[in-house]
Amino acid sequence: xxxxxxxxxxxxxxxxxxxxxxxxxxxxxxxxxxxxxxxxxxxxxxxxxxxxxxxxxxxxxxxxxxxxxxxxxxxxxxxxxxxxxxxxxxxxxxxxxxxxxxxxxxxxxxxxxxxxxxxxxxxxxxxxxxxxxxxxxxxxxxxxxxxxxxxxxxxxxxxxxxxxxxxxxxxxxxxxxxxxxxxxxxxxxxxxxxxxxxxxxxxxxxxxxxxxxxxxxxxxxxxxxxxxxxxxxxxxxxxxxxxxxxxxxxxxxxxxxxxxxxxxxxxxxxxxxxxxxxxxxxxxxxxxxxxxxxxxxxxxxxxxxxxxxxxxxxxxxxxxxxxxxxxxxxxxxxxxxxxxxxxxxxxxxxxxxxxxxxxxxxxxxxxxxxxxxxxxxxxxxxxxxxxxxxxxxxxxxxxxxxxxxxxxxxxxxxxxx
Length: 417
Ligand code: SAJ
Fold this sequence. Notes:
- The chain is an alpha/beta fold.
- It folds into two domains: 10-196, NAD(P)-binding Rossmann-like Domain (Rossmann fold); 213-416, 3-Layer(aba) Sandwich (Rossmann fold).
- The chain has helices at residues 20-29, 41-48, 60-70, 102-112, 131-142, 164-170, 180-190, 203-234, 238-245, 268-275, 281-312, 336-347, 371-377, 388-391, 409-416; strands at residues 10-14, 33-37, 73-76, 84-87, 93-94, 98-99, 120-123, 151-154, 173-177, 198-202, 318-321, 353-356, 380-383, 400-403.
- Strands 3-2-1-4-7-8-9-10 form an eight-stranded mixed beta sheet, with helices on both faces.
- Strand 9 (173-177), helix 7 and strand 10 form a beta-alpha-beta unit.
- Helix 8 packs across helix 10 (268-275) and helix 11 packs parallel to helix 12 (336-347).
- It is elongated, with a radius of gyration of 24 Å.
- Bound molecules: ligand SAJ.
C-alpha cells in the first residue's frame, strides 16, 4: 500500500453520493484530513464499516480501505469544521422541469453553522446559473460575523461513471470563483490532486459551462437518434451510414440508442431550458427527440410481436437485453432500457418475457435471466444496452434481432461493407 503524506488542510465533503464519495476518498489518499457528511443513515452505516461492498467503480474499494487504515476519513450526518467545504449533493428538478436547488441550500445552511474565517466553500453540484452567488448571499445572511472573510467557487466535476477516479484526477476543470481571490484559492486546492489543467472563469460562466457540456452531448446524441429513425424509414443501415459519414475529417456522429438516461445528460439541459425558454430551442428539441426514441424502440418491439403473432399463429417469447442507463454499469437512474422493460411488463405476458442485465444480480421488480438463456428461449431479442457481455453471444439464425444500440455494429460492418 502506497504511503500517504499528510497535508495540513482539512476538507469536509457534504453529500457522499457517486461524486462526493470518490472525491472524499481521493482527497484522503492525497493526505488531506477528510470528513464526509450525509443525511442518509444507510450511507453512513455503509461507510462506518472497514470495507466497502463490491463496487462496479474501479479503485473505490482500495481507496476506502486505505483511508480507513490511515484514519483520515470520518463520516457524520452534518458537516464538521474544516478549512475547505465541498458541496456534492443532488440537484433534481421539480414539477415542470424546474431545477430544485433545495439540497444545495440545505447543505449551505448546515455548513454555515461550522464556518470559520478564511474558509473556502466550493459547490460541485450541477447548478443553474447564479447558484454560487446565491449560496454566498445565503451564508452571508446566516453568518454576518464572517462577512468578507470567506471564499466561494463553483468547480463542476466532469467524470464519467465507470471511470470516476481516473477522470477526477486527470480531467481539466473549470474553476469559477465569485471573485479573483476565491478562484485563486480554489485553484491552489485542486492543484493538490488534479493533474488536468485548471481553467479560471467566473462562477456564472463555470455553472453554464457544466450545463452546456451535457446539453451539447444530449444534442449530439439526439442527432444520432434522429438519424437512426430516418435510416429505418429509408431502409438504410444506420451503422454503415454513420461509419461512412465519420470517415469525413470533420464529422463525428455519436451512437444512436434507446434514448438518453442517467442523472446528467438527460437532466442538465432542463436547467438551461427553464431559465432561457425563448433561446434554448435546439436544446429543448433534442430532449424531446431523445425521449421519443425510447417510445419508438418500445413501439418497434410491439410491432415485431404483432407481426410474429400474425405470421406464426402464436405469441412470441421476447428477450430484452440490458436495463442500465448505459453500457457496462449497474446504474439504472433514468434508464431508457428500464422504461422499455416497464412498458413490456405492463403490456405483455409475463411468462413470455425474459430480461437480462449482466451487471445486476437481482432487480426488485423483474426476474433476471442470464444472457444465454434469454437468447436461446426468445423468438425476438431486443438489445437495449450495448454491454460487453452481449457482443460475443452466439445467436441462432432464426431469431429476430432488434439491435437498438449497435451491439453487433462491428460484426455488421464486417459483413456489410
Ligand atoms: N449515449 C448514447 N449514445 C452515445 C453516447 C451516450 O445514446 O454515443 C447515452 C448513454 O447510453 C446514456 C446517456 O447517453 O444513456 C448518457 O451517457 P454518457 O456516457 O454520455 O454520459 P454520463 O451521463 O454517464 O456522464 C455525463 C458526461 N458528460 C459529457 O460527456 C458531456 C460526464 O463527463 C459528466 O461528468 C456527467 O455527465 C455529469 O456528471 O454531469
